[in-house]
Amino acid sequence: MKSLGISIARDSLSAVLWEQTLSSSRMEGACAVACAEPYGSPADVARLAEEVRKIAGGGSLPAAVLSLPPAWTFLRRVSLPVTDLSRAKKMHIGDLEGNLPIEDEEILSDVLPSPPGEKGTFLAIAARRSSVEKVVETFTAAGFRLDRAITDHVSLLCAVLSLKRGFTGLVCSDRNDIVALRLSGGALASARQFPEAITEDPDELENGIRDLLGDDAQGDSPQASIVFGSLSSSLAAIVPHPDPFALPGAEGDASPLAYGAALSPFCGRETGGFSLRTSAEAETERGRRQSRVRIAAVAAAVAILAASGSLGIARWAGAKKVSRIRAEIRKEFTEAVPGVKAVQETAQIQAKVRSLSRQGKELGADVPEATSLLGLVSGALPKDGTVTVRELSIDSGRLKIAGDAGSATNVETFRTALVTAFGPERNVVVQESEGSAKGGNVRYTILIETGTNGRAS
């Protein structure tokens, strides 16, 4: 498999073509072009495409990973009431909205896996949506096939882990502004970024690195450190013996940021599949969701009619109540099946229940189970109204609940109540939880299926 990593710097655009197979891996080539304007113009991107084609040979270009510069990004550590990465990816946006110097609708973000011993705390990296989509459009127009957009922080992480798996220590880079990462067990624990001009204020840079490391008064340094480029002399006291990063093979002039970007598709476990998803990608995902069969209305109708049928057996057995019973059945049948004349009411409603039951089973809904599930959901809802349900649907035996909540904490409280209500034989996970810029509410989707609670779907 071939992967193309692209680094965007203020003065240059760089690319590394990497090939990896089950038995070997190697750098096929690298190239760079100077930028006519900061971070490259469309003409600069077109020139880079020409250089990459010389390396890649004929045909279409391999899938590319774009590494965005620190100047375009925002870093935030977020604490969430969840520990698994899949749910954190969907919930973290609520913590970013209102806390970044951009409009909430402009936030494009993702989170990285938590380091060992720091469950529930994640590093979120965000960028301005319009900026990312503009650069993606420019590279796509030049013929690049973009697989994902990441950031220099992720590229540096992949580059380090390619040589030192499970690395713990400090990583510094001056290749594109100044970026400092603190790694723990191969995971990115925290990060800081500084403009290049900070070298003129060495005290501020040193204080920023100490803050990143959480140093004590004596300024103890980490066990190890890796430097990309040169290390500022002001950091010599806290990073006394750094190891310079060296690219593998003979490609000494290749960009280490483009190198790390090229490796990112092969570091999915370490990066958690980090990617800043554009609107086009999100729209594709929404289309896939809408294409799935939704049977909420059928399930609800089946549940109501099934409940009515079971109540009828118990309540309508007495001969003295036949007249009242027929009137009630006629009224219920007319409301449930409008436009159909009620002649043999009991037989007709039972036939309708059986018909809807067959339809429900064909679509994956079990009628008696649907009735009991709806009752369990209702009982688990908080009484204070902080959580509302907009939609219930059953798909292949799985119950999906969608609605709104006052906060991510309210969603987790509701999930915990559902776990208690459904018991250990059911797996209850927050499949989606996204903050809303309007009103501060959180939109959520909870999936309930057979399994063991605590397992992410």
What do these coordinates show?
This protein is an alpha+beta fold and 457 residues long. The chain has three domains: 2-287, Nucleotidyltransferase, domain 5; 296-362, no CATH class; 367-450, General secretion pathway protein M, EpsM (Gyrase A, domain 2, 2-Layer Sandwich), CATH 3.30.1360.100. Helices cover 37% and strands 27% of the residues. It has 14 helices and 17 strands. Strands 3-2-1-4-8 form a five-stranded mixed β-sheet. A five-stranded mixed β-sheet has the order 11-10-9-12-13, with helices on both faces. It has a four-stranded antiparallel β-sheet with strand order 14-15-17-16. The longest helix has 20 residues, at 296-315. It is globular, with a radius of gyration of 29 Å.
DSSP summary: helix tally: 14
Given this structure, which CATH class of the largest domain is correct? Alpha Beta
What structural category arises from helix and sheet content?
alpha+beta
Shape: globular
The total beta strand count reads: 17
* Spatial extent as radius of gyration: 29 Å
Arithmetic mean pLDDT:
80
Could you outline the blueprint of secondary structure elements for this entry?
Elements (H helix, E strand, L loop, with lengths): L1 E7 L3 E9 L4 E10 L7 H15 L6 E6 L4 E7 L5 H7 L1 H4 L10 E6 L8 E8 H13 L3 E7 H12 L5 E5 L4 E7 L2 E8 L7 H12 L11 E4 L14 E2 L11 H8 L4 H4 L7 H12 L5 H20 L6 H15 L8 H18 L4 H14 L6 E9 L2 E8 L2 H15 L3 E10 L6 E9 L7
Parallel strand pairs: 1-4, 4-8, 9-12, 12-13
Antiparallel strand pairs: 1-2, 2-3, 5-7, 6-7, 9-10, 10-11, 14-15, 15-17, 16-17
Helix pairs in contact: 5-7, 10-12, 10-13, 11-12, 13-14
